[in-house]
Amino acid sequence: MPDDQVPKKDDQKIVLSQYTQALLDTFKNAKKSVRPDDISALSVSQTVSFFALVYERVRNAVEYREDHLILRAAIERILRRRFSLNPDGHGEAENLLRELLWARYFDNGVLGAEDNVIIQNLINKYILLRRQLVIGRDNELRIFLDQFLMDLLTCEVEETLKPQSATIQSNLSFFIYQVLRNKIKIEGLKEDQKDAYFLVAIEKVFGKSDRAYLRYRLFTTFYKTLEKHTEKELEILGTKLPAIFKKIDDMVTNPYVDNLAKFTRKQLPPFLILFALIKSKPDDLQAILTNRERLWSEVDQTCRDKYQQLGARVRTLAVRSFIYILLTKMIFAIILEVPISIYVYDEVNRNAIIINSIFPPILMIAILGFFKVPGDENTRKIYQRIVDIIDDDKSFETRVAFVPKKSASKRPLLIFGFTVFYSMTFLVTLTLIYEFLSKLGFNLVSQIIFIFFVSVVSFFSYRIRQVTKELRLEEKASILAPIGDFFFMPMLSLGKFFSSEIAKLNFFIFIFDFIIEAPFKLIFEVVEEWISFVRKRKEEII
Predict the structure, then answer these.
(1) Residue 528 in 3-state DSSP?
(2) What does the radius of gyration of the chain's CA atoms come to, in whole angstroms?
């Protein structure tokens, strides 16, 4: 890096703030999983594990999730299947652990008898609460309470099995909260309410938590985990849980959370680089963070590494997204296109089928093929913001950066005009697509499927492109952006609708979960028992 780009300071020493020092201390004392001894360690057949791993990879491909959310979803899927066969949950902890070992979510020998006892205790408390809360309720409330309890159970099971990563993630989130909370002032809102909404926003943006983890984080913020409650305490708490669960969901969906999430997203790039540096240099952090020149060197290198990784990450997400779209939507739509076209029009347009098959991947490549990584100016801004975050000067933490104003008085006529104009964007875009496809000989069925493909691919591509912006400290809008939004927003809106609503009709998930998984796992259990039986006979002979 040229000398003129290196930040110049007369005093190279940085005095760390109490928040920063506390964060460094937590990394030194992070709770680690204790590997069980050889006698109590659980192990599974590698032969069974191979086939279980292949099945799990295919199963996860039909349900798009962030990588860090896959394990919890797998735990829920396993437990729901197990509880359907064994509602009392007796002995299901070991079955759960073995299935997680089969799918290689954990290495052989990492989980043991102590984990089995703790997880079974959690399952017992879940069953106790479920019986107390769910029985005798109307159907809608039963579903809500059952899902909320399952979310608490599965999140706690994952954090129990991965205590170190859970502790680190929690400490990083709390550090962001401590540094930024005083920068936020909201008129008419109490401090404790503001802080709760801000915690949810951090979980959404930094933790990228789904609904299950948002519920779990809020519940454990105000109450103890299931493991720390006695059965007597749970019986007393149980009468209050429906109201508590409703209040938590209201907090998660509160409009303040969305505003705070936007604020948090803009503040996040320096925290991401700082945390990456902390994780990559755990043994030399004190020396790096207290020296401006060394900190600049490390930040510069970390930023360039992260910029370089963006391309590979985008390609990976694109492949995963396209496989998900292919398996859950495109095949289904293409299968329908032929018979419906024959039934309605007595013919099949082969060109339409070919275009509907090859255009979506080309569109995704075109959308994702041109993204610009941040440059040196962005790196310098991140460095300076990191210094503001970690040093002992309180001016950054207390300088108010977010003050939501009261809602401006609504003008009904103006709102009506905007609504009409926004609706026109749909009409104009869809009309242009209709006219263009009609000239290509597309019938109405093929046109609907084309719009379906394009909107879904556009929506997923847009979500992936947001990944390329997470390290940009400031984003400058293009002059042509409003024109692009005019034609692009309708496709994004339709894509979001198709992905969220029609995802509920994902028949591949139904096939895997209710037709394939149960018999497959039964076969795995039988093979596992047979291998164990043969191994014991061999040991007896020796």
Answers:
(1) helix
(2) 27
- Interacting residues of 446 by C-beta distance below 8 A, sequence separation 6+: 337, 341, 349, 352, 353, 356, 437
Would you state the structure tokens that stand for residue 14, as one six-digit string? 């940085």
Residues of the chain by 3-state class (helix, strand, coil), percent to 5: 75, 0, 25
CA distance 512 to 509: 5
Task: Dig out the tokens for 440 from the structure.
Answer: 């290509």
Sign of CA dihedral 191, 195, 197, 198: positive
Of 313, 66, 61, 78, give the one whose Cα is nearest residue 209: 66
Pair 72, 213: CB distance under 8 Å: yes
**CA distance linking residue 168 with residue 408, whole number of Å:** 41
CA distance 438 to 127: 58
Concatenated DSSP letters of 35-94: PPPTTTB----HHHHHHHHHHHHHHHHTS---GGGHHHHHHHHHHHHHHHH-TT-TTHHH
For residue 392, how many C-alpha atoms fall within 13 Å in the half-sphere facing its CB? Answer: 7
Average pLDDT per consecutive 10 residues, the chain (542 residues; last block may be shorter): 49 84 80 69 79 76 76 93 90 92 88 91 94 86 93 96 89 93 85 90 92 93 89 88 94 90 92 92 85 92 88 76 68 70 75 79 75 85 93 78 61 69 77 86 84 82 79 65 63 75 58 64 70 66 63
Distance (Å, rounded) from C-alpha 35 to C-alpha 115? 10
In whole angstroms, what is the distance from residue 509 CA to residue 511 CA? 5
The residue length of the chain stands at 542
DSSP 506: -
Which residue, among 263, 282, 269, has the nearest Cα to 310 in the 3D structure?
269
Buried b (16+ CB within 10 A) or exposed e, 310-334: beeebeebbebbbebbbbbbbebbe
d(CA 91, CA 296): 54
What is the Cα–Cα distance from 115 to 36, expressed in whole angstroms? Answer: 9
Separation CA 276–CA 177 (nearest Å): 18
Q: How many helices (H) and strands (E) does the chain have?
A: 23, 0
How does pLDDT run across 449-477, given as a tens digit for each residue? 888 888 888 888 887 777 778 888 875 55
The answer to whether residues 300 and 379 touch, using CB atoms and an 8 Å cutoff, is yes
CA-to-CA distance for 458 and 436, rounded, in angstroms? 18
Which DSSP helix (H) or strand (E) runs through 207? none
d(CA 59, CA 47): 19
List pLDDT tens digits, range 523-537. 767 776 677 766 666
User: What gap in Å lies between CA 216 and CA 431, rounded to an integer?
Assistant: 46
* d(C-alpha 448, C-alpha 337), whole Å: 10
- Characterise 109 by phi-psi region: left (phi > 0), alpha (psi -120 to 50), beta (else): left
